[in-house]
Amino acid sequence: MLYLMVSVLCSVSVGVLLKHWGSRGMDAAQLVTWNYLAAAGLAWGVLQPSPAVLTAATTPWPLLLGLGLALPLVFLLMARSLATAGIVRTDAAQRLSLLISLAAAFWLFGEVANAWKLAGLGVGLVAIGCLLARPTARSVWADRGGRAWPWLLATWAGYGLIDIALKQVASSGTATTAALAVSFSLAFVLMLGLQLLRQARRRTRIDARQLGAGLLLGGLNFANILTYIRAHQAMSESPATVFAGMNIGVVALGTLAGVLLFGERTSRLNQAGLLLAISAIVLIALGS
């Protein structure tokens, strides 16, 4: 249970820090770049995947390259969602991306649907609709900085597509740890190229403060992944508990963080969406 609690805390901390630093004018693209430097280094050093994946004929390089591009892109979309929609709705939308991977499991991977999962899918879709609704004008968090729903929807869809890609990589026989290490490395290389181009055009300035902040984000991101894996290993007899605990924990703690740290307010429709999101997670876990 300790691993699960740490994983939830690390996941929410990433959103809290990204939002805080964004409000202070720090460059999200730089933060994401150095995040993947730390995540890639830790993935290779701690998980120690076999380097044979780099030369194996079965390695799905198009998928890994796609992940290398999608991971930082979705991270940037999430940063924008945090700035406009807040942590409460962004964390809930991110966690409900499991609906996309669940639907893909039925239609693409041949998983048998059952009543619990279908009910969870239906409830979750209603929850997404409630979360996308704009808070009332009286709310201090009424989509500051522009419309929030496109960024919420993009974050939801992006994380769902990443999960599908990871499942396709796993079905090819490539170890998940190796896929993560390679994808993180590719993401860093791509983002570093972008930062060097921006630096050359004088659109940004790389500095030590943003480097340190990005490395911290990467450490938290990797700790989230590592402790989630350890939680599944430690509670191998009850994977549904780990699944539900992780997703519900992030939604609950993200809500507390948004309200207590940033004064976010939500409409009654948004609040109903949060409750429906938790209900959907429970239903899907019961069907697992």
TrEMBL record:
Coiled-coil annotated spans: none
Protein name: Membrane protein
Keywords from the named record: Membrane, Transmembrane, Transmembrane helix
Residue spans crossing the bilayer: 6-22, 34-54, 60-80, 92-109, 115-136, 148-166, 178-197, 209-229, 241-262, 269-287
Keyword Nucleotide-binding: no
Domain of life from the UniProt record: Bacteria
Keyword Nucleus: no
